[in-house]
Amino acid sequence: MTDKEIKQLMESNAKTAQAMLDEIAEARQERQELREGMVQLQNAVAKLTNIQESIANLLVSLDGDRPTILKKLTAIQCQLDQLLPEELNNEAK
């Protein structure tokens, strides 16, 4: 091989090596961006889980209040049932 051919081969190899290094750096950057995206996704999932738990607790709380509300409504209905016949009897007199 002549000096010129060796020089061309070295330049070609250097360009190839540089292209490979550039691709490796690009791949690292993409992996870093993916890692950051995964962290953001994990944070979003954690927030959604907390919101879901809060909603579940709220629903349980509302369900817990239902018996109290039903008891009050039943008591009011019983009082009305007692008052209505009395008024009907008073009107009849």
Short account of what is shown:
The protein is mainly alpha-helical. It contains 1 helix and no strands. The longest helix has 90 residues, at 3-92.
Keywords:
single chain, 93 residues, mainly alpha, 1 helix, 97% helix, rod-shaped
Explain how this protein is built.
With 93 residues, the chain is mainly alpha-helical. 97% of the residues lie in helices and 0% in strands. It has one helix and no strands. It has one helix at residues 3-92. It starts with a helix and ends with a helix.
How many strands, which pairing sense, and closed or not: the largest β-sheet?
none
Q: Strand share of the residues?
A: under 5%
Please report the total strand number as a whole number.
0
Task: Determine the N-to-C terminus distance.
Answer: 132 Å
Residue stretches low in confidence (pLDDT < 50, at least 5 long) are none
Structural class: mainly alpha
- Rg (CA only): 40 Å
> Average pLDDT across residues?
87
Helical content class: over 70%
Tell me, what's the shape?
Answer: rod-shaped
The string of secondary-structure elements, in order, is H
Helical stretch tally = 1
Map the helices and strands.
Layout (H helix, E strand, L loop, with lengths): L2 H90 L1
